[in-house]
Design a protein that fits this description.
By secondary structure, this protein is of the alpha+beta class. The chain is built from six helices and eight strands.
């Protein structure tokens, strides 16, 4: 499955070819992905970003597909000690280290509601400002970029049926008086239950203790 084939399947199931309906399909797809994200974040939405943060620069760029931070850590290149930063509000971070030029090892970060023209929501703010270069690792939840320019993602590769049913579930209310809404809801819930069951089994297996033979 890819973006174009999913679009064609939604069109075929809906039996609609008018331009007004076709213009809504990207919204149905985005809503379907958002539904899966809200109900099954553990199936593959987690991603990693690694880079460096430099002296006296408290800003880290968020990845384009960032949705929510799981953790942010920095590693001292000299000692190789990894430190996990603590999430706080932007106001707390500024109050803790009000002078930007007063550098030290970062301890906190804020990743939302930056109430200043100089820092937008597309950045993560660390406090204090770094006293030297650190490598950082950002673990975050993402909403995959999915359109004609980005036609594939982990959902199309691993869970195409779940994605299709989620999108059809979002499409049917638009069609009005379509009796298939219960059918698509049932298909979506069944696919989700199966996938979450498999995911739980894999997670349990990872954590299980095996006897050496």
């Amino acid at each position: 499955m890819d973006y174009n084939s999913l679009t064609k399947q939604i069109q075929d199931y809906s039996n609609r070819t008018d331009d007004f309906f076709l213009d809504q399909i990207p919204d149905f797809i985005n809503q379907g992905i958002s539904r899966i994200y809200s109900e099954a974040r553990s199936i593959g939405f987690q991603k990693f970003a690694n880079n460096s943060i430099f002296v006296n620069n408290p800003i880290i760029d968020k990845p384009n597909d960032w949705k929510e931070t799981i953790s942010l850590s920095i590693t001292d290149a000299d000692t190789l000690i990894q430190t996990f930063l603590l999430p706080r509000s932007y106001e707390f971070c500024v109050t803790y280290s009000p002078v930007v030029n007063a550098t030290n090892k970062p301890m906190f970060y804020a990743d939302y509601e930056m109430p200043t023209a100089n820092i937008s929501t597309s950045f993560i703010y660390v406090s204090p400002s770094p006293d030297k270069t650190y490598n950082y690792e950002l673990i975050y939840l993402s909403l995959p970029l999915f359109n004609e320019q980005n036609p594939e993602n982990f959902l199309t590769d691993r869970y195409p049926s779940l994605l299709l049913y989620a999108c059809l579930f979002e499409t049917v209310p638009f069609l009005k008086d379509d009796e298939r809404i219960n059918t698509f809801e049932s298909l979506y819930n069944r696919a989700l239950k199966d996938i979450m069951g498999d995911s739980k089994e894999r997670h349990t297996d990872r954590l299980s203790t095996r006897d050496k033979t």
